[in-house]
Amino acid sequence: MNAVVTIMDWSKYTIDGWLEQFGAWCETARMKGGELPDGLHINQIYWLIREADKTPKSPKCYIRCEITDFEAEQIQALLRSVFNSKSVDYQAKYAVMCLVKHKVENRSLSAVATLTNQSKPIAHMMINCGRYFIHSRDNRMKIG
Question: Helices marked H in 2-140 — which ranges?
């Protein structure tokens, strides 16, 4: 019996790149009517037109998903391990949550500050703390 072993290439992206790609993967899964719990099913024709459009977009507008399902599952497992861990401090979880809002949800720094009820410089500091926490938890992920 031949078993296929898939190895994750963590050097492919930085922490920011992985989280942005994970956000794009989540959006792709949602738009294709995937198995997400919210049950949203968006028009397949719209999605096919959007995928076929090869014109360059603004990075804040649309990030093309370039990761596999396996890679997305690895990022999801990493984030779950942070948020579900009883040994991770609340402040570290909060910093990672700010980073997720900024990179995965593709929100601006101002939007993260507003959502978390903090100033823009503090939100920026929390996002950076989230990066360093993830790097310290899994040093295969590079900061930049």
Answer: 15-31, 44-52, 69-83, 90-103, 109-115, 120-137
Q: Which of 18, 116, 112, 101 lies closest to 65, judged by CA? A: 18
- Cα 99 from Cα 94, distance rounded (Å): 9
10 DSSP 8-state letter: G
pTM > 0.85? no
User: pLDDT tens, 69-106?
Assistant: 999 999 999 999 999 999 999 999 999 999 999 999 88
pLDDT tens sequence across 20-47: 999 999 887 766 555 444 444 445 555 5
List beta partners, residue 14: 142
